[in-house]
Specification:
The chain is about 40% helix and about 20% strand. With about 100 residues, the protein is α+β, with helices and mostly antiparallel strands. It has a four-stranded antiparallel sheet with strand order 1-2-4-3, with helices on one face. A hairpin with a 2-residue loop joins strand 3 (about 60-65) and strand 4 (about 70-75). It is globular and about 35 Å long. The N and C termini lie far apart (about 30 Å). The relative contact order is 0.26. The protein binds ligand H2B. The site of ligand H2B has 7 residues, from loops.
C-alpha cells in the first residue's frame, strides 16, 4: 500500500512542532536521540514505544547502547523506496508525549 510522502512544507511543520527531531536520510526520515539514567530506563522507554508502535501499526528503527536510544522514523510504504509520512509525525508526537 502506498502512503503519501509529506511535502517540504509539511516536513518543516513537523520539525517546528517537534524541534528535538532532525531530518535524516536526505529528508526521507526523522531522528532523535534519547538519553536516560541507565539501561533499565532505556529499556522501559523502548517497551512503551513498542506498545505504541503496535497500536499504530507503525514501527521505529532504533539503536540502543546502555542509556542511549537512537530512534529513526520512516515509512517503508511511502514513496518509491520509503519516505517521511503523516505516520511518522503521529508516532513522533506520541513518543514525545511519553518523555
Ligand atoms: N512501519 C514503518 N515504519 N513503516 C511502514 O511502512 C510500516 C510499518 N508498515 N509497520 C506496516 C507495518 C505494514 O508493513 C503493515 C502490513 O501494515
Amino acid at each position: 500500500m502506498s502512503v503519501p510522502e509529506l511535502t517540504a512544507d509539511e516536513a518543516a511543520a513537523l520539525l517546528a512542532a517537534h524541534p528535538e527531531w532532525t531530518l535524516a536520510r536526505e529528508g526521507k526520515a526523522i531522528a532523535r536521540t534519547f538519553r536516560f539514567k541507565d539501561f533499565s530506563e532505556s529499556w522501559g522507554f523502548m517497551s512503551r514505544v513498542a506498545l505504541l508502535a503496535e497500536t499504530q501499526d507503525h514501527h521505529p528503527e532504533w539503536f540502543n547502547v546502555y542509556n542511549r536510544v537512537e530512534v529513526t522514523l520512516t515509512t517503508h510504504d511511502a514513496g518509491e523506496s520509503g519516505g517521511l509520512s503523516a505516520r511518522d509525525a503521529k508516532l513522533a508526537a506520541a513518543i514525545d508525549a511519553l518523555v
